[in-house]
């Protein structure tokens, strides 16, 4: 059974940083395409970033480019999201997602496996 376990959420002030982690078990992690998504209350789930097994990346929203960095460590079965210069509008529940094939940013429903979510709250 594939499991994704997230950690690293929390509360910070504007301009602060957080790093989310997502540990994957039950699958050959190095074969998985991974993504980060977020959902704020009353809003649709939106893509944040996605990464290929080999490490190539794509960022889904212009608002996170230059501030967020997606990365992975295949030896540790772990996906990361480094978030810098956080803003109140980044407040959301963040989810990691996994798929055996490339999905990218838009079609979140095509990811096969999901983490439980990590709350990120940014205060002004």
Description:
A hairpin with a 4-residue loop joins strand 7 (68-73) and strand 8. The model has no long low-confidence stretch (mean pLDDT 96). This protein has no helices and eleven strands. Strands 2, 4, 5, 6, 9, 10 and 11 form a seven-stranded mixed β-sheet that branches. The chain has a four-stranded antiparallel β-sheet with strand order 1-3-8-7, with no helix packed on it. It is 0% helix and 49% strand. With 124 residues, the protein is mainly β.
* Pattern of helices and strands: EEEEEEEEEEE
Strand composition percent:
over 45%
Question: What is the typical, i.e. mean, pLDDT?
Answer: 96
In terms of structural class, how would the helical and strand content be classed?
mainly beta
The helical percent reads under 10%
Instruction: Enumerate how many helices there are, as a single number.
Output: 0
Number of strands: 11
Rounded radius of gyration (Å): 13 Å
Per the principal axes of the C-alpha atoms, what is the gross shape?
globular
How would you describe the oligomerization state of the chains in this entry? single chain
End-to-end CA span: 40 Å
Largest sheet: 7 strands, mixed
**What ranges have pLDDT less than 50 throughout 5 or more consecutive residues?**
none
């Amino acid at each position: 059974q594939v499991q994704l376990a997230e950690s690293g959420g929390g509360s910070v002030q504007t301009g602060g940083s957080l790093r989310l982690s997502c540990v994957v078990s039950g699958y050959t992690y190095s074969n998985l395409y991974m993504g980060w998504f977020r959902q704020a209350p009353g809003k649709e789930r939106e893509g944040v970033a996605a990464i290929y097994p080999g490490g190539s990346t794509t960022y889904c929203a212009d608002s996170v480019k230059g501030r967020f960095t997606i990365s992975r460590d295949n030896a540790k079965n772990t996906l990361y999201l480094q978030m810098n210069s956080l803003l109140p509008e980044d407040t959301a529940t963040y989810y990691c997602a996994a798929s055996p094939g490339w999905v990218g940013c838009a079609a979140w429903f095509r990811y096969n496996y999901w983490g439980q979510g990590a709350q990120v709250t940014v205060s002004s």
